[in-house]
Amino acid sequence: MGAEGCVVTGSIGLSRGGKSADRYRRIYAVVARIPRGRVATYGQVARLAGLGGHARLVGYALSALKDGSRIPWHRVVNAKGRISLRGDRSPANVVQRLRLERESVRFEVSGIISLERFRWRPR
DNA sequence: CCACTGACGAGTG
DNA sequence: GCACTCGCCAGTG
């Protein structure tokens, strides 16, 4: 799908000065480009968005997404290849795993994804 | 303005 | 591989 043209409508309540809002927009734009069946890490997304070193912002930005947004947030995992949402106590955790498995992304017994195999490598 | 929290990551022992 | 620390940014009380 042409994710590049996907406009982000998910405002987070930041109406002032646009610095922060612009960062969020970049983050969403990158996540929207992750192809089906692939995953990217928070740090990777931050780096691709020109925000190297701010992986935490990516997680913060994704947490602000609403249900129904077109952003494939489930394709973002941590550096260990593990799903981590609010200390593993959120139902969204299960949703993420199910969505990924449905895209053929396999989980190992330890509950992690082999980044060697499924990491998105944009060219 | 300060303290605390939160979908993280890299470094250290 | 695990536990702990520090750095970074944004939002809330």
Task: Give a nutshell description of this structure.
With 123 residues, the protein is mostly helical. The protein contains five helices and two strands.
Description:
It is a single chain. The longest helix is centred in the first third of the chain and has 13 residues, at 19-31. α2 (42-48) packs across α3 (55-63). A two-stranded parallel ribbon has the order 1-2. It has helices spanning 19-31, 42-48, 55-63, 91-102, 115-118; strands at 40-41, 76-77. Residues 1-17 have low confidence and may be disordered. The protein is mainly alpha-helical and 123 residues long. The two termini are 17 Å apart. It binds a DNA duplex (13 and 13 nucleotides) through α2, α3, β2 and α4.
In helices, the fraction of residues equals: 25-40%
Number of helices: 5
Quote the beta fraction: under 5%
Largest sheet: 2 strands, parallel
Question: What value does the average pLDDT take?
Answer: 85
Report the end-to-end length measured between terminal Cα atoms.
17 Å
Tertiary shape:
globular
Low-confidence stretches: 1-17
List the secondary-structure elements in sequence, H or E: HEHHEHH
How is the largest sheet built, in terms of strand order? 1-2
Number of strands: 2
Task: Tell me the radius of gyration.
Answer: 14 Å
- Structural class assignment: mainly alpha
List keywords for this structure.
single chain, 123 residues, mainly alpha, DNA-binding
